[in-house]
Amino acid sequence: MRLDTILAIVALVIAVLSAIGTVRATYQVARSGFRASESVLTDLATLLAALRSIATKGAIVMGEGRTTPIPIDTELDTVRSFVTSTSGLALALHAAEVGSAGAPDDPRAGAWRILRFHLTNLAAMQITSSSDNQAAARFALDIERTVSTLDKEAIKSVRYPMWCAQIRLCPSFEVRSEPYRSPHQTPGSVNHSLWG
Q1: Helix 33-64 and helix 86-101: axis angle, to 10°?
Q2: φ, ψ dihedrals at 179, nearest 5°
Q3: What average pLDDT score do residues 40-49 get?
Q4: How confident is the model at residue 167 (pLDDT cuts 50, 70, 90)?
């Protein structure tokens, strides 16, 4: 065999192995928690946009002294979709962690403790009067104020449960018997509330 034939065969083998590796990696990423982890950022941005729209429409109703409501059905559908999504679950887990870590009189921890309550109340609203617009605007502003405090490290903490969701939801006793540990918890501090 000639040298150029051998090099061509080696190059072909490397190309085939590389293609197999790429396909395998793409399949793993597509079915893993990676996609859910990345969607958290998009879902949070969409939620914040809907909250801002609700607050703006509530301010218009109040400022103009309107007696008829401004429809916010699209925004409420966005809030409902977020609450029932994996991103909503991830934010709820983060809210529980931050809320339980704070003192009872800590306003920051208190805001995180009631975040799920505010999201649920807003998602359940039916707008039939202008006062409903105003109430929705208050909920939206409270939620926006809390969610807007997420910094880079907090976003990592929110995304972490989605990244490893497949591992934690595995029916294996060994995996489920481990308590949840945020990547930001110190060794020895464990959040037992999620695993009883």
Answers
A1: 80
A2: -70, 155
A3: 89
A4: very low
Number of domains present in the structure of the chain:
2
Q: State the pLDDT confidence band at 10, using cuts at 50, 70 and 90.
A: confident
As given in the structure block, the two tokens for residue 103 are: 């003192």
Q: Are residues 41 and 93 in the same domain?
A: yes
Do 16 and 41 belong to one domain?
Answer: no
Burial 120-154 (b: 16+ CB within 10 A, else e): eebbebebeebebbebbbebbbbbbebbeebeeee
Range of the domain at 71: 33-194
**Whether residue 96 sits in one domain with residue 2:** no
